[in-house]
Every structure is written in structure tokens, then in C-alpha cells.
Amino acid sequence: MRKSRQVYSVRSSNSSPEPDDNSESTGDFISPEDVQYLWQLLAGSIGGATLVKYGSALFPEIAKPNLLVALLVISVPVFVELKSEKVERERCKRCTKKVSFFQFPPAFCSLYEASMETGEGSPLLPESNVRKDGDPRLEAISAAIRVVPHFPIPGIMFQDITTLLLHPKAFKDAVDMFIDRYRDMHISVVAGIEARGFIFGPSIALALGAKFIPLRKPKKLPGEVISESYDLEYGSDCLEMHVDAVQPGERALVIDDLIATGGTLCAAIRLLERAGAEVVECACVIGLPELKVNGRCRLNGKPVYILVESHF
Ligand SMILES: O=P(O)(O)OC[C@H]1O[C@H](OP(=O)(O)OP(=O)(O)O)[C@H](O)[C@@H]1O
Ligand SMILES: Nc1ncnc2[nH]cnc12
Questions:
Q1: What does the alpha-carbon distance between residue 311 and residue 128 come to, in Å, rounded to a whole number?
Q2: Catalytic: which of 131, 137, 181, 196?
Q3: How does pLDDT run across 205-225, given as a tens digit for each residue?
């Protein structure tokens, strides 16, 4: 079931540029891997051609014009060299396809990555989630998020933050940007939404000196709970919270990886407000574009802070 809500989004205003040491060389058209690949190709070709040309001294029959044999002699060293290298085990970083020598040689992947970096789209995926933003940290965060088409059901462009977690600097930058924003807002409770809000929430809570509250799916919490049901982009669900986890008047921040319809965040806000907390803001790493309305950002009267927007 899909519910449409009017949700506004704000993005980070923190934009001190910082080089991404851990980022891969996606912006370079020719990466070191490509150069290595070209050298191997050149060496293999020269070696093969030399063998054909001068091998006739030892094996006169080689000099006889036999195109098939000549091609074999030239290509075997190249294949042997490439097979011994990591080309076979490379994966295109933006799609789930395995990169093989025949499908996506390294140069192709660099071209692909470059197109993702510039937001021009990809020959492999129909859409790009790269936002055009001046802050290199946001660019790196956005670039590290993989988009998986038709997951978990056809038609959904799944924003996969597990690939962000593979990039420690981009992951840390995302957490730090939240910490910077909320450092002086007197937040006493950070409420993380199961499951992906648990990835970002605890680090933020610790840095802010706040407590962390897990908002969990049904029947996971052992204590007395209150529940709120909600609709999702695909299906419906329910969140639960321990009633004694938060005291009336506490200032709460709700954290999740992504806002799509806003149903999950609405349920989280309702839970916290039922317990008497004041929800200061909701924060997500990713906002889906359908939520952008008039450039201003509100969710049921609550502001939502979003680092990167998915474009598809
Ligand atoms: O804005 P909404 O339309 O409510 O959707 C956003 C929610 O959907 C995803 O979680 P999901 O429900 O898929 O659960 P999971 O994290 O356990 O996979 C995501 O992590 C958000 O919590
Ligand atoms: N498109 C999407 N990608 C990842 N998580 C989601 N939750 C709801 N919609 C989603």
C-alpha cells in the first residue's frame, strides 16, 4: 500500500569542503587499474607479435601465414596475465553485476563511475542518486549509496545504505554532520527506527550525551510498550517503544536511514509524543524526491533534516 504525504525536506547547510581520503578514484577517467590493464594489454600484444615475428628462427612453421595461430599466440599471454589479476573478481561498484573481462573491463567501469559522479546517469542503471551539491562529503555519501532496481518488489528503486558503511570516511561524515547539527540543541533522547536507524542513531546519541531509544518492530521489546501502525512505500508495519524509555518534556531526535512516504517517521513522532516527549526534529541520510515540496521541509509539523536526496 502506498500513502502519499506532503513532506518537506531540508538538506545539510554544513558545507566545509574536505577531501575524501577513502573515496575511490571514481572521478578519474583513467584509474590506476585501467593503466595497469592497458600496460598488460600492450605487453601481451608486443610479446605475442614478437613471438610470431622472431619465433620463425626456431620454429619456421610459425612464419607461415596462419591467422588463427597468430591470434592465439597473441591473445594467450594477455588472457593468462589478466586472469592472474583481479579483473575477474572486480564488481561494478554501482550495480550488482559481476565485472568480468568480457562484460565490464576496468576502463568501462571508470567511465561508468565518472558518469555517476557527474550525475549524467549510467548506462547500467536507469537512474542516478547523485545530487549536484558543492559539499564533497555529501557527494561522497551520495555516491556510496547503491541503488538496486526492483528490490524488494518490482518498481522499487531500493536505496542501499550498506554500501555507505563500506566507506568509513563517508559513513563517519554522515554521522558527524548529524552530530554537528544537533550538538547545541539540547537533545536528551535519540530515537532510532528499526532496523537501519540503529546503524546511525547510537553514535549520534553517544556524541550528544543523549540516551538512545530503539523504536522496534512488533514483539521485539520485552517491557511494556506502546504501538503505532503505519503505511509504507511497500506494505504496512508497526513500531513499538518501551513506555518508560522517555520522560515527559524530554527533547527527542528521531533518526532513520531514509524517508519515503514519511509514514515511519510519523509513527515514531506519535510514539514519542504519546510519551510526552518533544520531537525537535527527524533526521535521515536519504530523502526520496517525491518528498520535496516548495524547497521547505516539514513532516506533520516537524522539520526533517536530510543529507542527500535520491534522484530516480
Ligand atoms: O518513509 P517511509 O515510507 O515510511 O519508509 C521509510 C522506511 O522504510 C525503510 O524501512 P523498512 O520499513 O523497509 O524496514 P527495515 O529497515 O527493517 O528494512 C526505511 O529504513 C525507513 O524506516
Ligand atoms: N526506495 C527505498 N529504498 C530503501 N528503503 C526504502 N524504504 C522505503 N522505500 C525505500
A1: 6
A2: 196
A3: 999 999 999 999 999 999 999
Mutate to test the pocket of ligand 1, among 5, 215, 229, 258 (most ligand atoms within 8 A of CB): 258
Q: How far apart are the first and last CA of the chain?
A: 20
Q: Looking at the predicted structure, is the pLDDT value of residue 7 above 50?
A: no
Q: Report, as an integer, the average pLDDT of 149-171.
A: 96
25, amino acid identity: S
- Ligand 1 centroid–CA 248 distance in Å is 27
- Pocket, ligand 1, Cβ cutoff 6 A: 193-196, 232-233, 237, 256-264
The whole-model pTM stands at 0.63
**CA atoms of 213 and 189, how far apart (whole Å):** 7
- pLDDT tens digits for range 248-259: 999 999 999 999
233 annotated active-site = yes
Cell 517517521 sits on residue: 265
Query: 295-311 pLDDT, tens per residue?
Result: 334 476 899 999 999 86
Q: In this predicted structure, what is the pLDDT of residue 77?
A: 63
Nearest alpha-carbon partner for 37 in 103, 88, 107? 107
Measured CA distances, 247 to 44, 203, 221, 241 (Å): 71, 21, 18, 12
Record the cell numbers describing residue 55, joined without a space: 619465433
Average pLDDT over residues 78-98: 42
